[in-house]
Amino acid sequence: MAEQKEADASQQHQEDGGIKRHEDTGEEAPAGVVQAAEQSEAAADSDTKPSTTTSDRHISIQTTLEGLEMLVDLNGAGRKSCPLCPEEKFKACYSHKLRRHLQNLHWKVYVESKGSRMCICHLPCRNPKPSLSGDQVSGRHMAHYHCVVCSVTIARKTDMVSHLKRHVNKGETEASYSGSSDVQFEEPTPSGQAYEILKELGTNVQLLPNHTTPQKSDTYFNRKMKTNRQLVFCSIAVLAEERNPLECLDAFGATGIMGLQWAKHLRNSVRVTITDISDICVKMIKENCELNNIRVDGGSRGQRAPEKAGSEAETAPIATLEVAKMDANVIMHLRSFDYIHLDPFGTAVNYLDAAFRNVRNLGIISVTSTDTSSLYAKSPNVTLRHYGCHIVRTEYYKELAARMVVASVARAAARCNKGIEVLLAVALEHFVLVVVRVLRGPTQADESAKKLRKLVHCQWCEERVFLKLGNMVDDTHPCNCHGSLPGKTAVQLGPLWSGPLFNTGFLRRMLSAAVQHSMDDIQPLVKTLICESECTTLKSLVHGSSALTNQVECGVVIKTLQSGEDGGPADQSGKRKSGEESGNVVKKLKPEVSLEHPPFYYSIHRHSIRGMNMPKLNKFLQYLTEAGFRVSRTHFDPTGVRTNATLQQFKSVLTKYSVPTCTNAGTSAQMSEDGEEKEEEEEQEEVPTASSSPQQIRGASSHLRTEVYLWIRSRQQHHGGLHVQSPR
């Protein structure tokens, strides 16, 4: 009688009574009801002791339809009940109707995971929702799915899909399935099977199978950010030459690859601190330290010594670092550092205030931003919300993104009465990296704040110019398109950083560090950055004598590693020079190198002329140099040209050395004759230079366009199909 009453209680969805009967009497009740009750209890209260009676999957999880049909003897006579539905929802019926019910309702409504189907279940596995009075209503129960990994019950299909993705991102598979819900990732499958070993710059790191999934994985690792990690390493190697030892912080450790590289290659020159908010990341960082023979301060290596007393002694650790489980903002508020690297997932604006609070004077802060959708003008509303800037898509959008990040860094530094000097700004496909040196004092903060200006951009010809400093409203226009076209053509962008983006002396020392540590991948990039900082070509950089022995960084004269005359032992002290002495150094540099760095660049393909063949890019750079302009290539755009020439001067030189397109081989003889006549006219024509007036440049450009138009028009009379537009 007692068994019959408890069986009735299990039919009324009282799972506690069913489990008690199972424990006390030991008699077996219906498998679906008892197992569902056990799983629901384990999911509802994870603190209680899990049941260990079974570790099988729920009956709703099947791999084939035959397995689902085998839950009921469909070949027998009589009416049969559905194993996944209660009696009040689906009454007992004959085999043919029950087979259709299993196929259409349960087998076709499922969530799939690695060959297994989690069919929908209508059994009373979940507690019914209480009424307003607090009493449970024994009415309709919600349909749900049973997780194939942790056996938790989830009602919505989309929620179950997201739940399974979280299991995959944590490395949990079907092998970690258990009937209880207290299985944690702290004890995963054996490390030799679950982890992948990756070696980068002589440093080994363990990676989870899901390390390529961003934001969903705690230990996210991006192989495409190798260039970013090497640039940061070179910058910290340069700073380590100035002061020793160096307090460094990797605020977002993840796998700890960056901090491990610092400690392994720079050894006693740096004191590395790696922090992360995730327990899984902290555990993996410590395991990676042991993998690279690096001692962790406060780690568990000292406790394992008695276990290995009988074996041979381990080799001495090559370096020491500190691993902390702490929020990045908290540790930057509590401690002071010489070098801070911020590389969160997305934007880093939430951590800039804390970074500038305790950073030491003349220290370095490197910021990596990966929110390329907002930086590259794909989400203008997000850009305005995060960076406080208004931008549009332009031909120089990558440099626009770099200047926008520098502007946010400068504002954060100014709030802490600090100024910045930009040492490096790189914008590639996947990230924007900005490295700045911190200058303490309100005077330095004011100087940096003055370099935040609005940019006037013409949306027709894409010419641009920074507004002048001051409060007076002026009608500054970068070009004359507003006078020749109806409506307004210019927009204001920013505020942006209007100062230089590179420091030549720092980049040269970064190149020396890259050569010293055999970083062949970034050496061409660093050479391009050096040329871009000096606004010169690579040929003149290698063969010319423009390399200065001493470079000035924020009033500090630092000797670079070059073959030249020594600057004296006093230049290597690294102490701040007095105002007169540093001013004299700047005055000495003025005749040799112009201190104004040309902002932005022009794309040679964007401003090409229809029907004309452009010269090769290196030849075009030579033509601009011969015309008296400073010119260099840029890493922002492979077809971009950084120059101090205006857009009109740029187009005039491009038009001068462009050749009309040949449309037919039969006209080659006549083209040669016309070419000879044109060469004679070109000899008499004056090439526009940097000293030419705008009227002369516009006149020469208009004259050339008219001649080209007339020549193509004459060709059109003999050969049809060539569309020509009249020049403006």
From TrEMBL:
Keywords in alphabetical order: Isopeptide bond, Metal-binding, Methyltransferase, Nucleus, Phosphoprotein, RNA-binding, S-adenosyl-L-methionine, Transferase, tRNA processing, tRNA-binding, Ubl conjugation, Zinc, Zinc-finger
Chief subcellular location: nucleus
Record-annotated C2H2-type domain positions: 145-172
Residue ranges with Polar residues bias: 662-671, 689-699
Region Disordered, annotated ranges: 1-59, 565-588, 662-701
Composition-biased stretches (Low complexity): 33-54
Domain of life: Eukaryota
Amino acid composition bias (Basic and acidic residues), ranges on this chain: 1-24
Alphabetized InterPro entries for the sequence: SAM-dependent_MTases_sf, Trm1, tRNA_met_Trm1_C, Znf_C2H2_type
Positions with biased composition (Acidic residues): 673-686
Catalysed reactions listed for this entry: guanosine(27) in tRNA(Tyr) + 2 S-adenosyl-L-methionine = N(2)-dimethylguanosine(27) in tRNA(Tyr) + 2 S-adenosyl-L-homocysteine + 2 H(+)
UniProt xrefs under Gene3D superfamilies: N2,N2-dimethylguanosine tRNA methyltransferase, C-terminal domain, Vaccinia Virus protein VP39
Cited SUPFAM superfamilies: S-adenosyl-L-methionine-dependent methyltransferases
Subcellular location: Nucleus, Nucleolus
Entry similarity comment: Belongs to the class I-like SAM-binding methyltransferase superfamily. Trm1 family.
PANTHER family for this protein: N 2 ,N 2 -DIMETHYLGUANOSINE TRNA METHYLTRANSFERASE (PTHR10631), TRMT1-LIKE PROTEIN (PTHR10631:SF1)
Name of the molecule in the record: tRNA (guanine(27)-N(2))-dimethyltransferase
Species: Ameca splendens
